[in-house]
Design a protein that fits this description.
Blueprint lengths: L1 E4 L4 E4 L3 H13 L6 E4 L2 H12 L8 E5 L7 H9 L9 E6 L4 H9 L4 E4 L4 H11 E4 L5 H5 L8
Parallel strand pairs: 1-7, 2-3, 2-4, 4-5, 5-6
Helix pairs in contact: 1-5, 2-3
Length: 155
């Protein structure tokens, strides 16, 4: 199980509006109580992460990122995110996809993803996947905590 501070947001990045809504529903039905922020493109999510750097947005604890997006794929998004020092230690970056291709898993790990989950078919199965992977703990993580390597997530 991976522990997520309850006050730190979860960011979901997916170009498919239906998948965004499904993931939001799954997170609402799961045992997690984190605020959820939805982004329909990697560029919009990277812009949000700039807010972390300038102190206007809270440091997220988890990013759920679709692999197959136009313009900026999940892999490209992850490469750009990890290029910024404060986000090299972002505790968990999950690349969610309908693809179970081994080469996608290998590429995700090479780019710094902490794990790779295949999108579950059906909301109930997706909720079980989230609930068996994550659990909430009190607190939040700040940019300063992350820069000092003091993050709460653990497995």
């Amino acid at each position: 199980m991976i522990s997520l501070p309850v006050e730190s947001p979860i960011l979901v990045v997916d170009d498919n509006e239906a998948d965004l809504m499904i993931t939001e529903t799954v997170l609402e039905r799961s045992g997690l109580s984190n605020p959820v922020e939805l982004f329909s493109s990697g560029a919009a999510a990277l812009e949000r992460m700039e807010g972390v750097l300038d102190g206007t947005m809270p440091y997220p604890m988890l990013l759920l990122v679709d692999v197959n997006m136009p313009r900026l794929s999940g892999f490209e998004f992850l490469r750009e995110l990890r290029a910024q020092p404060p986000f090299k230690t972002l505790p968990v970056v999950m690349l969610l996809s309908s693809s179970d291709a081994e080469e996608d898993r290998i590429k995700a790990k090479a780019l710094g993803a902490d794990d790779y989950l295949v999108k579950a078919s059906g909301v109930d199965a997706y909720v079980r996947l989230i609930d068996t992977t994550f659990v909430n703990v009190p607190g939040s993580v700040s940019l300063e905590d992350a820069e000092r390597g003091r993050v709460v997530a653990s497995s």
